[in-house]
UniProtKB/TrEMBL annotation:
<feature type="signal peptide">
    <location>
        <begin position="1"/>
        <end position="17"/>
    </location>
</feature>
<protein>
    <recommendedName>
        <fullName>folate gamma-glutamyl hydrolase</fullName>
        <ecNumber>3.4.19.9</ecNumber>
    </recommendedName>
</protein>
<dbReference type="InterPro" id="IPR029062">
    <property type="entry name" value="Class_I_gatase-like"/>
</dbReference>
<feature type="active site" description="Nucleophile">
    <location>
        <position position="120"/>
    </location>
</feature>
<feature type="domain" description="Glutamine amidotransferase">
    <location>
        <begin position="49"/>
        <end position="238"/>
    </location>
</feature>
<dbReference type="InterPro" id="IPR015527">
    <property type="entry name" value="Pept_C26_g-glut_hydrolase"/>
</dbReference>
<keyword id="KW-0378">Hydrolase</keyword>
<dbReference type="Pfam" id="PF00117">
    <property type="entry name" value="GATase"/>
</dbReference>
<feature type="active site">
    <location>
        <position position="234"/>
    </location>
</feature>
<dbReference type="InterPro" id="IPR017926">
    <property type="entry name" value="GATASE"/>
</dbReference>
<keyword id="KW-0732">Signal</keyword>
Length: 340
């Protein structure tokens, strides 16, 4: 239905066809390696790459430790931006948070044509950035290993992401009734906080869910006018993550579940196709990607895209280094106690 709608729009509107581009590139912000041991790397799970590629786009890594000059040069070539999931809270790593903040400013300065998507920690990044200055935008939820159907809000009916007139009927039905959305988070945004802090910033709550204790969190949101979307669940998980990775939460691999998650990536890439940004040349694109992305199939059967930090950039940020030194200290103390 979605495809049919796009094709008929193309048929009646030559102007629109000129605005749709064949090979959009989505920039994916890398996440700092938490092992705190050299060689320091940044990474994202390759499920995010596959999720984007299945809809016809390509991926360029945006290294979390990029200089602002390099970022300013890369950004105008990207058709969309993705903040992936990851461990901890958005502000735990200074360099990561600062690059995310800069991207957030850039998409807003950019006449609001570049889609920004947040998944899980990326959703929490949305909340932290738009709720800036407010304490406790995020609160604790018991929602790890939890597969749920989405509870659509009244506002979702007129939304971009979940309007029943644009989402294929079967996908809408699946999302709203089946346990297809995989939750893997211990933080979230309560409905009260959303209304108080994020709604005044132009964000709209599209779906809500309950955690194991019955506490309600906002599970999907979008910006009222700009193409900015975030989900607390994992639309890349159903097709590309294994049971091992998520413990007990087997991502729903039914035909319906997979189709619903494919719809999500088609939507994001569809938004990215609407702007005319492009790399200067294929070589310019390759210069960003080649030698950076390395598909590393881990023992859990999931592959991870490892983005290796080169040369003088291979330094861990101060906060992480301090945490590592402290952890080693505690370990040595415990060892000393055991030996007494
Ligand atoms: C979804 O999972 C819950 C348990 O977490 C279960 O009680 C419920 O019946 C499931 N719903 C569907 C439609 O499978």
């Amino acid at each position: 239905m979605f495809r049919a709608a796009v094709l008929s729009a193309l048929a009646v509107s030559p102007a629109l066809s000129q605005q749709l581009f064949d090979q959009p590139v989505i920039g994916v912000l890398t996440f700092p390696d938490s092992s705190m041991l050299p060689p320091y790397t940044s990474f994202f799970d390759s499920s995010y790459v596959k999720w984007i590629e299945q809809s016809g786009a390509r991926v360029a890594p945006i290294r979390f430790d990029m200089s602002s000059e390099d970022l300013a040069a890369l950004f105008p070539q990207l058709n969309g931006i993705l903040f992936t999931g990851g461990a901890g809270m958005p502000e735990d790593n200074d360099a990561y948070f600062s690059t995310a903040s800069r991207l957030w400013e850039l998409v807003q300065e950019d006449s609001e044509t570049v889609p920004l998507w947040g998944t899980c920690l990326g959703f929490e990044m949305f909340a932290t950035l738009w709720g800036k200055g407010e304490d406790n935008v995020l609160s604790d939820f018991d929602a790890e290993n939890l597969a749920l159907p989405l509870g659509f809000t009244a506002d979702s009916k007129s939304s971009k992401l979940f309007s029943p007139s644009t989402v294929p009927e079967d996908v809408y039905e699946t999302l709203g009734t089946q346990n297809v959305t995989t939750n893997w988070h211990t933080y979230g945004v309560s409905v009260d906080t959303f209304e108080k802090v994020l709604a005044p910033q132009g964000l709209v709550a599209l779906t809500t869910n309950e955690d194991r204790e019955g506490k309600v969190f906002v599970s999907s949101m979008e910006h009222e006018s700009a193409p900015f979307y975030a989900v607390q669940w994992h639309p890349e998980s159903n097709q590309f993550d294994t049971t091992d990775k998520h413990g007990d939460a087997t991502p729903d691999r039914s035909v319906e579940g997979v189709a619903a998650m494919q719809y999500m990536s088609h939507f994001l890439v569809g938004e990215a196709r609407k702007n005319a940004k492009t790399f200067e040349s294929e070589d310019a694109f390759k210069a960003i990607v080649l030698g950076q992305l390395q598909d590393d199939v881990a023992t859990d059967g999931c592959s991870t895209m490892v983005v290796t930090l080169s040369g003088d950039r291979a330094q861990v940020d101060e906060k992480t280094a301090a945490a590592f030194i402290q952890a080693v200290g505690v370990y040595l103390e415990e060892l000393a106690m055991m030996m007494v």
